[in-house]
Fold these 4 entries.
Entry 1:
Amino acid sequence: MSKIFGTDGIRCLVNKEPLTAETCLKISKSVAYILRNKGNNNSRVVVCKDTRLSGYLYEPLVTAGFISMGLEVILVGPLPTPAVPLMIKTLRADIGVMITASHNTYEYNGLKFFDRNGLKLNQKIESKVEKLVLSSTEYSKIANKSFISGKARRLEDASGRYSEFLKNCLSKNYIKKKLKIVLDCANGATYSIAPNLFWELGHEITTINNNPNGTNINKNCGAVNTQNLSKKVIQKKADIGFAFDGDGDRIIVVDERGVEVDGDKIIALFCKNFLKPKKIPDQFDVIITVMSNMGLEKYLTDKLNLKIKRTAVGDINVINQMKKSKCLIGGEQSGHIIMSKFSNSGDGILAALKITEIISKNKMITSKLFDLYKEYYQEKIDLFYKNKNKNMINIIDALNKDKSLNNKNIRSLIRLSGTEPVLRILVEGESKSLVKANSKKIKNIIRPYLV
């Protein structure tokens, strides 16, 4: 084991490194050592989780690690990831941790850490944690020599606090138009709070995949698979459907026809309704990623006169760039939508609420509301590999630099996933036939190197 953190915290198969019981304990102790308020004897940490079975394994492990270092642990139970930064703020905690593997199925789990400002750890801090965990000499130096330990308690009103925060994010001029909404909670962290919240706001709610059993999280449902949501929206003649992922920081929309609307279209809608171009040199208005559709880029720059910047994939990269440019809106095609006025994290429920706010102000059906630009044709391919090797890295670099695959008519991006052993290929262009031909070409070239 040479590295612990990926592009979004720590994530791997349950009971595999770096999330064996022994290493998990080391990680939580190391994070406590680095991030605790050393001038405060009452340092706090908020521990949250989603609904996967292995939460019962990792919640007590990280709790024990923090307690052993003298911290007070506040357990908030199953809640979406964006609830963690809020709890850190309202409880004056120094650390937050979300036990989740996001959109992955139950065989996976992970840890997302937040600092006292509610921000995910930067690479510098992650490197410090890795150094402590991976070096027995360094790790031996951080032991709590005191006989005084911390303690743990469960916060009973955590979901109520988060729900009230979300309601307060709505405009004061919010028009309470009753909508027929279908929610797909992915059998994950939004399973209880989302249906209750939208019902309290007066909407007619139908909910699917809101019965988590520990092993059905993200299983053919939620933001990663909207087929059942589309059918239910059509069946119920609903105005809109919202699909969340397992930890609730992503959202995908389904319109009244059952057609999927991705994160790019949501970003476009928010920019149209909530942004005005800045007149500040060298600053950006919107942050998107290298995966975002060229149609979105043209709409933002040509139609809305906004300045955009693309980052690498991963909401942490979007958030960091948003901080630098003081942006209000950023996100990913996959459904991470960040509205920095309200949160330092992608928040699926918040995005859904703001969409209902826009619908309530407009006399348009959902499909018309999101019909903002013409998408370029994209083809995405996922190829699994066994081992990362130098030859594979070299061929990826060569393909990404190949001008026959990247020019004014075609765009290609080949990258390794930061959360699982998958090579991801994106090919995009106005010509569907050219995109398909190049996709096939790239796949044939790279397949022999996936050993």
Note: DSSP finds 15 helices and 18 strands in the chain.
Entry 2:
Amino acid sequence: MRDSVEVKRSRIDGSIVCPPSKSYTHRAIVISSLVDDGKASIIRNALLARDTNATIHGCRVLGSYIELDDEDSSNSSSNSSSSSNSSNSDASMRRGRMLIVHGRREFTIGYREIDAENSGTTIRMLSAVSSLVKEGSTLLYGDASLNRRPMQPLLDALNQLGVQCRSLAYGTPPLLINGGGMKGGEARITGSISSQFISALLIPSVYAMHDVELSIMGEQVSRPYIDSTIAVMRAFSARVDNDDYKHYIVARQEYKHANFTVPGDFSSAAIMLAAGVLAGGSVRVEGLDFTLPQGDARIVDILRDMGARIHVDTGRGMVHVEESMLDGGAFNLADTPDLLPVLAILALKSKGSVEIRGVAHARFKETDRIANLARELSKFGAVVKELDDGLIITPPKVLKNAMLESYDDHRLFMVLCIASMLTEHSIVRGLSSVDVSYPSFLDDLVRIGADVSKKGIIG
């Protein structure tokens, strides 16, 4: 039983303030939870959504004290002497909340359980962080989707670093992590499945008993997400030596408290920019920050390459697009797999075929996004060829009305809603999934003119 929305042909026009980055919110919460210098860290513009709430809950279970400040984060200040990351976004462009975090370097003894719900970032990062429990063990698990996602490469690497841990299934959650600290040393891990494994290992390595050296086997996917992790570690006074994403060294050091402002989320912005290109009018997305690494900022270059009418103002943190007929082309999204759903729907309004490659790891996201996109885009009348590592999409002349399934995947739900605005009448199932990353998605879409309405619960 899932809730659904009815979408009719729409023309949208207006501006949207981008929600905060889910990726940066996760990292800032986890890393600030490891600060133990007697002072609080301030996280401004934090995204409160289902995934990030799971991380907050998990860090609290481990022993961190995290307080939600009711005062608008843009008007709040701290008496601490920590530095703040720079941001081009004006305070009025922030949509997030302020968190006050009192962290711990060595978590308390005992047994604990963490429900990561649907969040792969939560379970992977907190699995590694759970090794810092002084004595005891931590059981981590999630919903049915998360409990199918691969974790064995991370567990193998943690074992190499002296952490006793194992899967209670077959390389998937539930996971049992024994405390006692991370000894350190050398570990080897594949880079081909998820960059979250690397991020998860880097964050607690700061407190390993000996320096940590990570060697990456094969091609590293989603490298900008590792850049994001290292950027947040740096904001909290930790350093990582990164040798071309093949070799990392983390020396024993300490995190220090900081003020950190979460940037606007380019992953969410990409979805709304696609809406403007497909169903504008015009759409202006504000509240973006071009100073911190975000792989999905590549959407700007992709839209330009496809011939979209686009204007970027980095100083004001704004991207403006207008309805455009797009060119086809071939794109490799190995570093930006979350753009796969966005580019897939952009292909529906292109003059020729769009080929997307390099995203085999998208099969290990919340769902198999390659197979599911192929299935759902075909319902519109598109000719879709499924590849091992991507899709080739040939658009139809006119999109058919469709009954669409998002498979409870937030990104698929959002892009299918946007594509449906090119049809006379379509239904998209899975509205509740947007709480994972963009709780106000439907409200934002309706506010700028989309004809979208909730249909209640259907079977």
Note: The longest helix spans residues 266-279.
Entry 3:
Amino acid sequence: MLLAFTGGFVDTLGFVALFGLFTAHVTGNFVLIGAAMAGGAHSGVIGKLLALSVFVLGVATTRMFQLRRERRGLDTAVPLMATQLLFLVAFMVAGVWAGPSS
């Protein structure tokens, strides 16, 4: 449940902060890509397509890491959760650093 909450929170926050880019829900990006292409407004499509390719690369890399550790009999949950935490903190720091300075 905690991972589902985290995914939903990051997705919502990312959608608002990144001007319409879903960070945790790749299906939402598919819908927005299709809507932009059907409507003729191709301005945000490139960023969404890049996000999609990075998502696929991230899933493939994570799965290969997981399989390699499982073959050696090592735990996969702790390093993957630590990596997720690291990326979430990095995203937060980047958002605070690049955010508006009022």
Note: The radius of gyration is 16 Å.
Entry 4:
Amino acid sequence: MSNSVSTKVCQDVVFVNDVRELKGIKGLSNKRLCIIKTDFKDLDKIGKICKLYPKMEVWLTCKEVSKENILAADSYGIKNIVEYPLNPELTDILIKRNFAENSCEAHIEHDKNKYKGIKDLKVMIVDDNPLNTGLLEETLKDLGLKLLIFQKSKEAAKIIEQEKIDLFLLDIMMPEMSGFELAELIHKSRLNANTPIIFISALSDSEYKVKSYNLGSCAYIEKPFDVNVVKSQICSLLKSHNDSENRNKSKDSYLAMVIHDMKGPVQAELSALKLMTGMYGENLNDDQKEILGDVINSTKYLQNLVGNILEKYKGDNGKVVITKSLNSFKKLVSECCDEVKYIAPEKNLRINVSYKSKIDNIYFDYDEIKRVMHNLLTNGIKYSFKNEEIKVNVVNDSQNLIFSVSNIGISLDMNKIGNVFEKFTSYCEEQKSVNAGLGLYISKQIIDAHGGEISFESTPDGKTTVTFTLPANLNA
């Protein structure tokens, strides 16, 4: 095994096929690293060597690296296990990296054009072994990436809610939080739910590979790995993901621009229709009034849709900014209910408001919460059966104001509908209606920004209730 690495490195490193071979080696106390081939039945003897030569680091090498083997080695303080037979190039880099050897490094020739387009992209590396993070840093250092490196997974978890990352490279077995648990947090995060993940692990068991792909990982790389292959994999994935992100941003920007340009004409059309109704309403027959009323309602729906799409665009791009001020919540409830009365009579619906909260004036963004209430009320009216009642309830607990809207209509199976607050989630087919599926998505963004919560419930008897809370403190 001594030919596995360069001669200079071997001056500080000893390789043995059996721990018993160490008895015949002179100057062992001067060695910086000892690599021992093992079947893990001799860990007690290896542990004694570790205690006898505390300044000498010990690595193990074996044909199969499993979870059980890693745990067993870890119990003896042995942090690094490499696959046997040793990969000469990889072993050389590992050792040099570990002992800060900067000389005699082989320069890997590569085509610089391969790495265009990924400069300054953010890659997060999470591995509790500094040797492994160091090797990945060494592998990626010439790509112009911004590397965020963590040995503690809980520290990495804090960042995923604060910064947009372009790629995650995760170890699996970590003491504070496993790579699998961290991946689940990433998928639930607002900023990085769609960010690609690669697992890099010494675990070769198929069950771990299957679980990683079930969690949506793009690749599973086994340690030790080929530096050139891993670099190409990461580069290719980053380029592909970045190109896709740029295309999506261009589409979203174009959509936002078009929708924004629609705001003026839609508002002008609605104002003109209202003016016509005021000027000529008394001279219209019943059929003409009905047609004009339908056109007005359709224009109001279009106006609401335009507003929702623009809010969705702002939310997706992290631009949901709220401005809190002290307002009367009771006044807002009354105002919103008055504004939707024009569509309630079409189905002969009654709007019943019950304000039982002892709290009224709190800090919130008046316009944004009005948007939420308007969305919930118009949904309740739209999906309600005729001749029913829309119930609006306001109560409070010790910490929150609680607002809810209930209607009676077609029941939705809570076990099948999934997350109703995802964008473009709509149940038009079940409800026999036209809906873009943005109202609840935007409502959640606004309530989240206020520090509140929003929930949805549909019962078998056809009662659907949407509830949101707002912190009932007097602080902005």
Note: The CA atoms of residues 3 and 88 lie 8 Å apart.
